[in-house]
Amino acid sequence: MIEGETIVSHLETRRSGGATRDDLMKEAVGLIEAARQDYDWVGIYLLQDGVLVLDNYLGEETEHTRIAVGDGVCGTAVAEDRNLNIPDVNEIENYIACSIGTASELVVLMRTSAGDVVGQLDLDSDRPAAFDEGDERELGVVADWLGRLFDEG
Q1: Sign (positive/negative) of CA torsion 90, 129, 140, 149?
Q2: Strand order in 51-58's β-sheet?
């Protein structure tokens, strides 16, 4: 199980040492990806002018570097203003496959202190139903912390 508070504590230490927002997001992706063997793709998309733009990620290269709000699981999460845990991506009509092997996906929104969505954590697994409520809760701790980095401009 991933431990959000442990990741946030590590990131907070790095932030105190002068790490930039980009450094922190890159490090968060690495820590999340290393937390579980079946996290096959971990990335951050940032919301820019109504489009999700791929920022830092680990996993297979993807051609989906820009996703419109409403498209695929990532865009739908923003459009519906909620996290999405998809146990079987084959059941999603507008699914956008980053990898042919992906079986399940979890999207956790990143928000500022004011509640504005600024991006999301996107995780894919080649295992069906790889994510549970615990993953969503713990990743939510990390996503909330990362979202608040955008309070500073």
Answers
A1: negative
A2: 66-68, 51-58, 41-48, 117-125, 104-111, 84-86
Task: Report the 10 Å Cβ neighbour count for 124.
Answer: 28
Kindly report the CATH number assigned to the domain that includes residue 79: 3.30.450.40
Max CA pair span of the chain? 45
User: What are the tens digits of pLDDT across the range 69-88?
Assistant: 999 999 999 999 999 999 99
CA distance 96 to 101: 12
Q: Residue 21: is its pLDDT beyond 80?
A: yes
Entry field: residues in the chain? 153
Q: Which residues contact 9 (CB under 8 A, 6 or more apart)?
A: none
Residue among 152, 143, 142 at smallest CA distance from 5 = 142
Q: Integer distance in angstroms from the first to the last C-alpha of the chain?
A: 32
Q: Which domain holds residue 127?
A: 4-152
Q: Please state the domain count of the chain.
A: 1
**pTM for the complete prediction?**
0.94
SS3 26: helix
